[in-house]
Design a protein that fits this description.
182 residues, alpha+beta, MutS, DNA mismatch repair protein, domain I, 2 domains, two-stranded antiparallel ribbon, 7 strands, elongated
Length: 182
């Protein structure tokens, strides 16, 4: 289920207007939930303490929709076609606008660091990362041996045959970025 949900990640634009209605302010963006209501993972996936392993929050592009989905506004079953506002929601409810600011992060050495993180001990040999059979990233040791960006494998082998050579791994890079974001 986690895999299926992670393929449908939302990426709202920084200017997107989203609203969430909640009965108490703490429920606008809760740190954890004890029970899920209309939507959520099945109970059999719950942790030993009964809390769900993940959950999602309902947000709407219109405040009115958020109010309806939070059930602040309810059908009046005693009078067909009429509605009323829940008394607790009127007194304590919150309608919050959610903002998703963009944070720019530059990771110039990512294609290198997925193979040899900076925190790891220095290796005896340099490292060069290739894409389309040309060097796109290299560490200091490889640079000191005369290797430069754009060089082909044969040139690297001629100048520094002990240099570790890796093909760029976009899957590893994506995994590293997602781990940073979590």
């Amino acid at each position: 289920m986690r895999e299926a949900l992670s393929r449908e990640l939302a990426d709202p634009d920084a200017s997107a207007q989203l609203f969430r209605a909640a009965y108490v302010p703490e429920s606008v963006l809760p740190a954890r939930v004890q029970r899920v209501y209309r939507f959520g993972p099945p109970p059999e996936l719950s942790r030993p303490d009964g809390t769900p392993p993940f959950w999602w929050l309902y947000a709407a592009h219109a405040a009115e929709t958020a109010i309806w989905e939070a059930q602040f506004c309810k059908n009046d079953v005693t009078r067909a076609g009429t509605f009323y506002f829940d008394t607790f929601a009127v007194q304590h409810g919150v309608v919050a606008e959610l903002k998703f600011p963009r944070i720019g992060v530059r990771l110039p050495s990512l294609s290198l660091e997925v193979f040899r993180p900076k925190w790891s001990r220095d290796a005896d040999s340099g490292l060069a990362v290739f894409e389309s059979d040309r060097v796109i990233a290299l560490d200091r040791k490889a640079g000191s041996a005369g290797i430069c960006a754009g060089m082909r494998r044969g040139g690297v082998l001629t100048l520094a045959p002990d240099t570790a050579m890796q093909d760029r791994d976009l899957e590893r890079e994506d995994h590293a970025i997602r781990a940073l974001a979590a």
